[in-house]
Amino acid sequence: xxxxxxxVARIDEIERxxxxxxxxxxxxxxxxxxxxxxxxxxxxxxxxxxxxHEESSIGHEELYVxxxxxxxxxxxxxxLDGPAGTIVFxxxxxxxxxxxxxxxxxxxxxxxxxxxxxxRVSPWELNREILPLLDxxxxxxxxxxLVRALDENPDSAGLLYNLACAEAQLGEIDAARLHLAExxxxxxDFADAAQSDPDxxxxxx
Amino acid sequence: xxDPGFEVxxxxxxxxxxxxxxxxxxxxxxxxxxxxxxxxxxYTGAGAGDRVIEEHTERTNGHEELYVxxxxxxxxxxxxxxVDAPAGTLVHLPDPEVRRGAVAAExxxxxxALGGKRGEAFTPSAWETVFAAYAxxxxxxxxxxxxxxxxxxxxxPSAWQGQYHLACFAALDGDRGAAFAxxxxxxxxxxxxxxxxxxxxxxxxxxxxxxxxxxIAGQA
Lengths: 205, 220
Description:
The structure holds 2 protein chains of 2 kinds. By secondary structure, chain A is α+β, with helices and mostly antiparallel strands. Chain A is about 35% helix and about 25% strand. Chain A has helices at about 25-30, 125-135, 140-150, 155-170, 175-185, 190-195, 200-205, and strands at about 5-10, 25, 35-40, 50-55, 60-70, 70-75, 80-85, 85-90, 95-100, 105-115. The N and C termini of chain A lie far apart (about 60 Å). Chain B has helices spanning about 30-35, 125-140, 140-155, 160-175, 175-190, 190-200, 210-215; strands at about 5-10, 15-20, 25, 40-45, 50-55, 65-70, 75-80, 80-85, 90-95, 100-105, 110-115. The model of chain B has no long low-confidence stretch (mean pLDDT about 95). The interface between A and B is large, with 51 and 51 residues.
């Protein structure tokens, strides 16, 4: 029997990401390659659905659609009420944005891509796919995938930080120090994280 | 006023543009916000049986598509299969060649359509402007329709479809001279225009004119 030329799924049936239970990885589930698409769903009221962030490093335009429930968005310092059916478009990648659920079961669909450029999977998504390997101590495989991800995203602080962790665990101390320094230069908050991260203990000795 | 970097709208407040005689109402999301990185539109069917996604393929622009049923319930026809799609359903079509369409199975059905071409930067489809032109005409704003159609031709003067639709509008206005001039130009640019014109109801009032047969035969 030939394979069907389409796929169908219910948002609430897609397996949530093990590292972040509110994340429903739609793009990854279907293998979408032309744009980014994810959903975020809250099991409880007041849960943070979209972490405060901006998109400067990847230059994405982002569209948020409240599929169900009600959310409060904080965008560029403004608070916005978002009942189901609300559409928020953030065209400036430098604008800070985030959202919190105002009702149990609130779900937000997010779509993103960079104007004028072919779509590439965001480094944070690649990083999330690699985290289970770090958690299970599969350091060599994690390192190989991080190196591949960095080929396309050389300025991703998160990828560099996790590469430093993998290298530290593999005993590649010089490389780990170098990549940790690069990660901290791009994202200074990683300096604090590195002080207590058990994966980096060997660097603190 | 400084650009705040974002805009907000309610889906229900978006413009409602009638697209066909099957109840398909287009809510232009991408045009409303000026989104330039991916395609996104919503379609609503007020009553059960109304069309919510027109029968089409994405062969022309090569888009991968994702449909999201936001409200109500739709019945998709995808590659010949019928798919029941209550609110919360996602339908993904990576292959632009696959035929797809949907009708509302319940009153008040809304479907969001997302699209882009793999490996290429997004460019807005010219059909959006043409769609809008016909919608305004349906709503009685013929002048706005003409403006949008001219805008579409300016956007892509090398596309035969622009001349073709100018011919349709002229025919609907009863301007035979302009209709034949644009139709001849369209056929000259691509013979596909002649195949379209053969069955197009927009030309009903000029089909009996001998110039019509000459125009679609490319013998003007």
